[in-house]
Specification:
This protein has 188 residues and is mainly alpha-helical. The chain is built from eight helices and no strands.
Amino acid sequence: MIMAPSTDPPPEQHDPEAARQHSKQVAELFSAHNSALVRFLTCRLRSSHEAKEVAQEAYVRMLQLDAPSGISYLQAFLFKTASNLAADRMKSQARRQRIDQIGFFDQVDASPSPEAGISAGQQIDNVLAALDKLPPKCRYAFIMHRFYGHEIGDVARLMNLSERMVRLYIERALVFCRKRLLATGGDE
């Protein structure tokens, strides 16, 4: 006889006492270490507001643990979780800044010369040729954001992807197009 895998929740969810005990431990961690955690995160993130948000997210993750009894040092786990969340936030901010700093067609000349018009047309052709070589999702995210002006969150919803993934696609497209323009003799 073949038995189906168990779909029962972890033992802590069966035992309301274990869940209460875990919540009590997290509350004790909060009262004993929250100010130290927020100071630690403020130093890393350079923003007390963001530090409080990350600390709150770390506590939420602690409360959502499936098997809290498997962690012997909750304080260390809390700080490591918060540190990882802070690092993720800093990476996202750095990526956002890189994407915003890479520009196309940002230099606008009110009265371009005929040579500049021809050069601009060639650059557009080069960008369009580069876009054709991109993977479809990468191309779509880039075009929706840079050409149609949609916010990254809107593009993410349209593509049914995370904002982080859309930012990665846009960054890849920007770098690829920039390299192609430079390789074909295009200006910055």
